[in-house]
Amino acid sequence: MATTTGAPGTALDRTQAIRWRQTWAQVMGGFVPHLASLEETLCRAAETVRGRAPSRVLDLGGGPGVLAERMARRWPDAAVTLMDLDPVLLALARGALDGEVRTLKGDLSSPGWVASAGGDHDLITVVMTLHYLPPVQVRAFYDDARRCLASGGLLIVADLMPDDGVPSLMSALDPAPDEAAAELAWAQWWGGVGEVKGLRPLLAQRAAAFRERPPAEFTAPASWHVAIAREAGFGEAGILWRCGRHAALAAVA
Ligand SMILES: C[S@@+](CC[C@H](N)C(=O)[O-])C[C@H]1O[C@@H](n2cnc3c(N)ncnc32)[C@H](O)[C@@H]1O
């Protein structure tokens, strides 16, 4: 079920929310090499495919809303919605982005999220999130995402997608991210958030949610994602951006 209200019992001021989001962005940058170039590329693709700025944007598994905020500021007339399952990350997004971005609680592992999000979006982004779902749910996700897009709308899926074709020169030249360091920074970030008294009730809810849905850590090659997107009815699908083992697929509904 979707909700736009802050969680009861959460005491998190705006300064704290902004600070935790800033360090989150650093942590994510440790996992995804050249994250800023990915974000710039996906924004340009969205502007190019429609010939104008998107007016309805949905960021799925958007976490504390770093990308959602960038898109809302780049396209001030757009209605930007962030959906996530994690109550802690949603609280950080709401604490920092009040009014700029609509936040919804939703679970991508079941089709109920489609009705909450609604249709007719020009752009859907899913960054470093699909690997939480097992293959059968990733397949269903592409169908569900297409139903949320307007005709000609763009889906961008960025995640670990190893290259099973001819590797790009950029991939070969780029140093691999230090995954152990990124994992440590992730653990430290969550350890720090765990100390924030006002977030404790939400941390307990988070633990319960992920106990039922442990991350699948599913990684498929880019060609698999392209094939699944086409099977789901996307007219065009291909790799828009790659850096090492990370890639972004673009698919046009
Ligand atoms: C690694 S984080 C990436 C967050 C954000 N996209 C970013 O790049 O900063 C993965 C996100 O997926 C969310 N997530 C995982 N499983 C989910 C599910 N079943 N439904 C909705 N969100 C989910 C997590 O809560 C988390 O916010």
From TrEMBL:
Gene Ontology molecular functions: methyltransferase activity
Pfam families membership: Methyltransf_25
Record-annotated Methyltransferase domain positions: 57-153
Biological-process GO terms, alphabetical: methylation
Matching Gene3D superfamilies: Vaccinia Virus protein VP39 (3.40.50.150)
CDD domains xrefs: AdoMet_MTases
Signal peptide: none
Keywords assigned: Methyltransferase, Transferase
Domain of life: Bacteria
InterPro entries (UniProt xref): Methyltransf_25, SAM-dependent_MTases_sf
Protein name: Class I SAM-dependent methyltransferase
